[in-house]
Amino acid sequence: MLERAFGKAGPRIEDAHHYRHHLVDQRCGWAHWRSGELLGTVRLHGSADLFASPKAGRWWLAARRGQVIMHRRAATVPDLFGLKVVVTPPEGWRGSLAGILKTLVDGLTAALHAHDPVVDPRIPDRAAKIDPALTPDDLRALLAEPVLAPLGRVRFITPWRDSVQLSPADDRMVAFDIRLSRDRPPGTVIAEAVDVGPIHRTS
Questions:
Q1: Cα dihedral 122, 123, 126, 132 in deg (nearest 10)
Q2: 132: which of 27, 37, 162, 191 is 20 to 30 A away, CA to CA?
Q3: 3-state SS, one letter per residue, for the chain
Q4: Exposure of 12 by Cβ count < 10 A (0-12 exposed, 13-18 middle, 19+ buried)?
Q5: pLDDT by residue (tens digit) across 49-95?
Q6: Which residues contact 53 (CB under 8 A, 6 or more apart)?
Q7: What's the pTM?
């Protein structure tokens, strides 16, 4: 689990900050945030190749080709949100969560966004950089839908060198929980985006 906690003044980039690492029981929830409304759910099947060579664009494509359920649709990004992820690795996987964490989170978060209506014309021509079988027309169609999404509308895919880069609004994510499971078919990834609020402590 990862969490961001703020002082009484709220999140200010100029404030001093520190990191704290500690072990908790796997049954524990977030210490600073309570889960609220379920915003969106993603369910995908990741191939052994995807787990072995994880890239944000490939995770996003797997999510969009999987199941994305919009429990709430919004035009703007929520002020704060949390993400809960359960990963059932493919058979024989020798990797670690740390090795897929960044690209997986970027791909899942992007899948819960709607893309800005203005798409850089260079992006569709780079569809094969995401997946060799992805055509420019397919990429245009994926970026056109949905019009609204639970994590709002942003320009989450941009040109980068001769490829593309995913830049979802994950700076609004203040709570994150990822766990390994063996309870689902190998390669299954399930993610839930939730509204969050601070836990107010009396002591």
A1: -160
A2: 191
A3: CEECCCCCCCCCCCCCCCCCCCCCCCCCCCCCEEEEEEEEEEEEECCHHHHHCCCHHHHHHHHHHCEEEECCCECCCCCCEEEEEEECCCCCCCCCHHHHHHHHHHHHHHHCCEECCCCCCCCHHHHHHHCCCCCHHHHHHHHHCCCCECCCEECCEEEECCEEEECCCHHHEEEEEEEECCCCCCCEEEEEEEEEEECCCCC
A4: exposed
A5: 999 999 999 999 999 999 999 999 999 999 999 999 999 999 999 99
A6: none
A7: 0.90
Q: Are strands 114-115 and 163-166 parallel, antiparallel or unpaired?
A: unpaired
In angstroms, the CA 121 to CA 8 distance is 44
The two tokens of residue 136 are: 């420019």
Listed by start position, the domains of the chain span: 39-173
- pLDDT (mean) for 151-171: 96
Amino acid letter for position 57: G
> pLDDT-derived band of residue 195, with 50, 70 and 90 as boundaries?
very high
What is the total residue count of the chain?
203
Query: Considering only 15-24, 103-112, 174-183, which range has the smallest mean pLDDT?
Result: 15-24
Q: What is the pLDDT of residue 49?
A: 96
What distance in Å separates the CA atoms of residue 198 and residue 145, rounded to the nearest whole number? 32
Residues 134 and 128 sit within 8 Å (Cβ to Cβ): yes
Cβ(33)–Cβ(3) below 8 Å:
yes
